[in-house]
Design goal:
Blueprint (H helix, E strand, L loop, with lengths): L1 H25 L3 H6 L1 H17 L5 H9 L3 H10 L6 H26 L2
Length: 114
């Protein structure tokens, strides 16, 4: 039951981040939106992959991802540092970065006695 709530909370969180991103993009001029097309596509792909991946994420990864601010934007920025933009590599990137987030979260929990 707790894991299902975590998954639901995570999905709400990333949905809210996506809605905010979309709102911010739509406030820009047409040319700026056009220039942001790749970013828009990537953010949406990251969102969709995370929704799918959330069914298989551990509770700890879900907790860490929920606690991590602006995770869509962060994962997009990390993705931009990778060489190729193939979807399989994007998913690899997300798994790797979520693992780092989970480890940082674990350390933070231990330090704060949570």
């Amino acid at each position: 039951m707790y894991r299902k709530r975590l998954q639901q909370t995570f999905c709400w969180k990333i949905n809210g981040e996506l809605k905010l991103f979309q709102y911010q993009v739509l406030q820009k001029e047409k040319e700026a939106i056009y220039h942001a097309a790749y970013q828009i596509d990537c953010i949406i792909s990251i969102y969709e992959l995370l929704l799918e991946m959330s069914r298989r994420m551990s509770k700890e990864t879900l907790e860490a991802a929920i606690a991590f601010p602006d995770i869509l934007e962060f994962l997009y920025e990390e993705w931009m540092g990778y060489q190729d933009s193939y979807m399989g590599e994007l998913q690899f990137c997300l798994n790797r970065e979520l693992g780092k987030i989970r480890m940082d979260y674990r350390i933070m929990k231990e330090e704060n006695g949570i």
